[in-house]
């Protein structure tokens, strides 16, 4: 961890801390590097520490690893928080070497975000979101009356371009992060199930007169999964249990800053987040390593099968 003087880099940074306006911004203000030469796991952990205290940050990959940047006005406070975290976690054992090797590096989140873009283009060619949302959106009344396929089809529809771009970014970031932990097959199955469970719970809450679209329920499912995974890692270490709440606090901070906009379906986001926590705890408690390639393939086939079946059911093909 190294703190240095302010810089004014003309680069595009990916914002992974709390931001109510955008996930990607052009940084032009004076900012300072907080940490450098980090592994991705270290950068993600420090990010959760900062997010839990409401401090914005940017995470950038460099030639020597990952870097975390913060505004110069909060640099001292952020440095103290990270230093305090390091001091309190100095006795935490490192991740088992074999388990670390099993963490699959994947960028499937980018491909899934492009799939969302393709779906949006198809909606535009079909006459716009208005009619499509009525047919395939997460209508509470229709879901409770048997059209359960809507819990899946609604995840692939978006109201407008900002809605789409935000969820594409969320899927690319958090979906990829989950899959780097679990493997692509298991990861996307968990994310899809969290979206389905979130939409089902939301339908049960409203029962009628409510319809929504968007992948954000699944995005926050991924956030909940990550929070639960980090919680499980901490709670298994005796001297870390007092700080086990930090991942959950970071996840809730992201939910508050990114999921509570003027036109957001906050309850769907919340239920997706809770479903992700549940699935993350199940994964952490019962799966102690990344599944083998053949099992990853089975899970990926199941994920694709659920999506395909739902659209065929929605189209009255079945």
The CATH class name of the largest domain reads Mainly Alpha
Mean pLDDT: 81
| Percent range of helical residues | 55-70%
CATH topology of the largest domain: Rhomboid-like fold
Number of helical regions? 13
Evaluate the radius of gyration: 20 Å
Structural class: alpha+beta
Instruction: Give the termini separation.
Output: 57 Å
CATH superfamily of the largest domain: Rhomboid-like
Shape: globular
Side by side, the strands of the main sheet go 1-4-6-5-2-3
Number of E strands? 6
Strand content: 5-15%
The secondary-structure element order is EEEEHEEHHHHHHHHHHHH
How many structural domains in the coordinates? 2
Give the biggest sheet.
6 strands, antiparallel
List the main descriptive attributes of the protein structure presented here.
single chain, 318 residues, alpha+beta, Alpha-Beta Plaits, Rhomboid-like fold, 2 domains, six-stranded antiparallel beta sheet, 13 helices, 6 strands, disordered N terminus
């Amino acid at each position: 961890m190294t703190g240095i003087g302010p810089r004014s880099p003309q680069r595009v940074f990916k914002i992974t801390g709390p931001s109510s306006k955008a996930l990607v911004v052009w940084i032009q203000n004076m900012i300072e590097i907080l940490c450098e030469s980090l592994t991705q796991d270290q950068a993600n952990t420090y990010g959760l520490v900062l997010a839990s205290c409401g401090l914005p940050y940017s995470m950038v990959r460099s030639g020597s690893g990952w870097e975390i940047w913060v505004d110069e006005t909060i640099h001292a406070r952020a440095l103290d928080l990270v230093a305090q975290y390091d001091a309190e976690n100095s006795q935490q054992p490192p991740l088992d070497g074999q388990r670390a090797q099993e963490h699959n590096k994947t960028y499937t989140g980018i491909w899934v975000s492009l799939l969302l873009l393709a779906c949006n283009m198809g909606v535009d060619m079909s006459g716009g979101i208005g009619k499509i949302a009525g047919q395939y959106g997460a209508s509470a009344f229709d879901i409770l009356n048997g059209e359960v396929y809507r819990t899946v089809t609604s995840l692939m529809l978006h109201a407008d371009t900002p809605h789409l771009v935000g969820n594409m970014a969320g899927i690319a970031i958090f979906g990829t992060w989950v899959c780097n932990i679990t493997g692509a097959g298991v990861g996307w199955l968990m994310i899809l199930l969290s979206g389905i469970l979130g939409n089902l719970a939301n339908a049960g809450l409203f029962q009628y007169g409510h319809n929504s679209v968007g992948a954000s329920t699944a995005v926050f499912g991924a956030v909940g999964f990550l929070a639960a995974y980090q919680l499980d890692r901490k709670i298994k270490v005796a001297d870390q249990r007092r700080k086990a709440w930090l991942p959950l606090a970071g996840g809730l901070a992201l939910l508050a800053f990114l999921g509570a906009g003027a036109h957001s379906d906050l309850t769907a986001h919340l239920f997706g987040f809770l479903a992700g926590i549940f699935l993350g705890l199940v994964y952490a408690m019962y799966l102690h390593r990344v599944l083998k390639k053949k099992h990853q393939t089975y899970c990926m086939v199941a994920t694709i099968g659920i999506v395909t079946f739902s659209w065929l059911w929605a189209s009255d093909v079945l």
